[in-house]
Amino acid sequence: MKKFLATGAILLLILPAIAQDLLKGLEDSVPAREKVAYAFKSTRVINAHSIEMLAKGNLDFRILHRFSRVNTGVDQWFGLDGASMRMSFDYGLSNDAMVGIGRSTYRKEIDGFVKARFLQQTTGGVHAIPFSLVIAAGSTIWTGASPTSVKPSTSDRTSYYLQLLIGRKFSDRFSFQLSPMYLRRNMVDRPTEDFSLFALGGGARFKVSNRIAFTADYHHALSGIPSANTDPLSVGVDIETGGHVFQLHFTNAVGMNERAYITETTDKFFKGDVRFGFNLSRMFNVGGKKGKGWNDKEKGAQSGRNKTDSGKKEKLAN
Prior knowledge:
Layout: H1 2-29, E1 34-35, E2 58-69, E3 83-94, E4 97-104, E5 109-119, E6 122-123, E7 132-142, E8 158-169, E9 174-178, E10 181-185, E11 196-207, E12 212-221, E13 233-241, E14 244-251, H2 258-263, E15 275-285, H3 296-317
Antiparallel strand pairs: 1-6, 2-3, 2-15, 3-4, 4-5, 5-7, 7-8, 8-9, 8-10, 9-11, 10-11, 11-12, 12-13, 13-14, 14-15
């Protein structure tokens, strides 16, 4: 009996320690939860918002250039003689919130937006988040001449949109997002058009290298636009060089804000009505503490691989 009691007392003393070690081992075997970033190289896929956000304190100065149709021929130098432009400034209020303002030569429009991330994709851990969730809301006002004899008010010239962005980085190379949108115009050009409409969009990126990726975005208005209109489609390539991101692309949309490219695209992409264009992004840090650029994580990984390869070469040489 005494031996039994002594054995029980010893077990009571050592079992908690054993259990604690086992739990610690299980915790160590579960990978830590990490945020997934850099699904896209920019906060825009091409035309549309992407699920990417600016880091806190980063200012993104963007110049968007859209030439005329390539099929205008040599007389217009394949569209290069005519162009429209949008210039904008976007700023990161935090790592999960940003604002922006822009000006387009097309219809002399001014636009602004706010964008917030509510979920960010994560890997590892017990409760990994499988996708990122971002909401963007903006407004556009056109200041050019009215296309009709009616003199519009400031309210008539204004449009609003609300967009939901749901995206996932499936691998180091491939990312995809869906972007349903509600758009409201206070004035339409034709009585057959609706003031409010819904559109469904999507965007994708396929990374070729740390500095080059193929991109595409597409939107389809579910109703509310003339039957002669077509869906805006853009395909291009992103080239990252230091603090710059060049986005070279072909598109059938002339407008470069949500109202314009959703409601006023009439060119047919697969019948040759495409325009060459480019987006140029230059990043500045104006918030004191330096934030990460578009691709610091990817460049850091590449730098580490380059150093490893260099060390191996030195050992072989010695």
